[in-house]
Amino acid sequence: MLSESDVRKHASRESCWVIIRGSVYDLTSFVDDHPGGAAVILKYAGKDATAAFEPLHPGNTLEVHLEPKHNLGPVAPSAIKQSPEQQPSEARNGAPKAVALQTPKKFKLSAVINLGDFERAASYNLDPKAFAFYRAGADDEKTLDWNRRSWQAVRFRPRVLRPIGKVDLSTSIMGIKFSSPFFISPAGAGKLAHPEGEILMTKAAAKHKVLHWVCNMASCTQLEMAEARAPDQTTFWQIYAMTNLAITEKEIKQAVERGYKGFALTVDAIRAGKRERDLRFGVEEFESPEDPETTADGNTHGGGISATRAPVWSAFDWPSAIAWIRSFTDLPIAIKGIQCWEDAALCMQFGVHPWLSNHGGRQLEGAPSAVETLIEIRQHCPSVFQKCEVIVDGGIMRGTDVVKALALGAKAVGLGRTFLYALSFGEAGVNRAINILQQEVETAMALLGVEKVEDLGPEYVDISAFELRARL
Ligand code: HEM
Ligand SMILES: Cc1cc2nc3c(=O)[nH]c(=O)nc-3n(C[C@H](O)[C@H](O)[C@H](O)COP(=O)(O)O)c2cc1C
Questions:
Q1: Residue nearest to atom 3 of ligand 1 (CA)
Q2: One MF term from GO for this chain (predicted)?
Q3: Residue 104 falls within a domain, yes or no?
Q4: Hey, which bits of 123-175 come out as E strands?
Q5: What is the chain's Cα-based Rg?
Q6: What is the per-residue pLDDT across 1-41, written as a single tens digit (0 to 9) for each?
């Protein structure tokens, strides 16, 4: 059986062994193919990576992505005792799988009265590294901030003295009826917030009949999340095309078999954005003498948990991407990461739905917010709204933001971070986030003089702030 000292000898890119769940893996040939980048793996070369690995990966990742030759067998029980300082903070706090529940909650769910409170709560309650991973945006995080502020720049044009009774939030999204026009956007690593991970989002979504658009980078498996569905619940699946397309193809086929009824292909992440919050955490740990070296060219290994995403398949063009995904399913497809009207028009041409998103400001700093892209489409190619369902996300913090998006032509409005933060309180947190949003949307529609989602239109909003910007 391999021992602690055996593993320690393989702590470099040239020979990289790690321990995960008591087994030794030789990742030397895998390091440069790792979808989360080489740096994170090299940081744990020669050490036990279980605590860092678990919350970020579905339970079957090792079986799906590694060949049997990578598994060198079990490690002797005494292997790799790290000092508390060397361990990742989640491991220091106790059980490896969850970060959030190991520390007493400082910010109670009962104190949460709006969606922004979930972020404040998470900043108190979550492990700082986990919070940084969720919160991070690219570069100076200006796009992340702008996503939020851009909804505020849209003003309402309310109508009064209209009889308003029950406000009906229900709508259909890609052919399926839901109780609300907002949904849980695909966002991974849910076990950083709660040990049960994203299945709790599926359960809360079932309770409220809202859409959970499940993420393929989730920390629960596709099967677990399918099994968590209520009998009458519909969920959709999000895809990254990985360099090993065969793996993604299998994933899509299984998603169809497992009853996912709609798909999104995410196309805005062929490289990872430079998320400096993550990098700073990496650098802080990196300075310990145990960590890998800064190389002569000034690069560092171990630069944060999402710093250098490697191989997402980046050779697709429009015809090949759509033909590829269409060869697996006739179900509705959205292309996630549309950021200009020309690409929205291409979605229309190829019979798919445009999902206006800049990945929550995590990718290209300077990218437009979904508001700006909605306005562009209205100006240059309004037929997109007739032929496609336009989906949006990014910076939605209020019911009023949802209503503004719908008025500008969106069919469905996603929220990413908010539901991850809410998940730190378990299913109850996600339930509360949905309740808060439903109440805020309901109030905003009533005050606007509208009873039904389909009655919202551009006459209810004033976008002159954006026209002024365009003229300058
Ligand atoms: C040991 C074998 C490992 C395998 C087979 C593996 C596999 C994967 C795969 C397949 C993904 C893409 C997500 C998915 O489709 O499931 C991923 C993402 C990722 N992995 Fe690993 N991984 C390994 C080790 C590690 C380790 C030790 C870390 C240390 C923290 C790590 C951190 C990450 C991160 C940060 C992401 C990206 C998450 C994101 O940006 O959303 N991985 N990994
Ligand atoms: C921590 C985190 C992980 C994410 N993971 C994914 C993912 O795996 N796939 C994807 O298409 N989008 C992913 N996103 C982007 C979200 O789907 C969504 O576009 C974004 O969060 C919306 O912005 P918001 O967080 O301001 O609501 C992620 C976002 C965050 C914050």
A1: 62
A2: oxidoreductase activity
A3: no
A4: 155-156, 171-173
A5: 23
A6: 898 889 999 999 999 999 998 889 999 999 988 888 888 89
> Which atom belonging to ligand 1 lies closest to the Cα atom of 218?
16
* Ligand 1 neighbourhood includes 20 CB (under 6 angstroms): yes
| Ligand having the closest approach to the CA of 312 | 1
Give, in order, the Cα–Cα distances in Å from 347 to each of 267, 342, 353, 395, 409. 12, 9, 6, 23, 16
User: Contact 377/421 with Cβ under 8 angstroms?
Assistant: no
pLDDT, residue 282, reads 59
Give the pLDDT of residue 94.
30
State whether the beta carbon of 47 lies less than 6 angstroms from ligand 1. no
Same domain, 394 and 411: yes
259 and 349 belong to one structural domain: yes
> Residues 371, 150: contact at Cβ < 8 Å?
yes
Q: Does one domain contain both 264 and 366?
A: yes
Q: Which of 240, 260, 421, 460 is catalytic?
A: 240
What is the structure's pLDDT at 467? 82
Residue identifier of the C-alpha nearest atom 4 of ligand 2: 187
Q: What is the per-residue pLDDT for 470? A: 66
Interface TM-score (ipTM) > 0.95? no
Burial 244-266 (b: 16+ CB within 10 A, else e): eeeebbebbeebeeeebbbbbbb
Which tokens is 58 given? 């579905």
Judge whether 107 lies within some domain: no
Torsion angle of alpha carbons 193, 194, 198, 201, nearest 10°?
-90
User: Locate tokens 């989640």: which residue?
Assistant: 90
How many domains is the chain partitioned into structurally?
Answer: 2
Q: Is 268 marked active-site?
A: yes
359 is known as an active-site residue: yes
Distance from the alpha carbon of residue 136 to the mean position of ligand 2, in angstroms: 10
Counting from 1 in the atom list of ligand 2, the atom nearest the Cα of 213 is: 17
Q: Which parts of the chain register pLDDT below 70?
A: 78-105, 281-311, 469-472
Residue 59: predicted pLDDT = 76
Establish whether 240 is a catalytic residue. Answer: yes
CATH number at residue 224: 3.20.20.70
- The boundaries of the domain holding residue 41 are 4-97+275-286
CA angle 243/245/246 to nearest 5° reads: 135
Residues 217 and 322 placed together within one structural domain of the fold: yes
259 in the same domain as 248? yes
pLDDT value at residue 471: 59
Q: What pTM was estimated for this model as a whole?
A: 0.81
- Residue of 44, 359, 401, 421 marked active site: 359
Residue among 48, 117, 127, 268 flagged as catalytic:
268
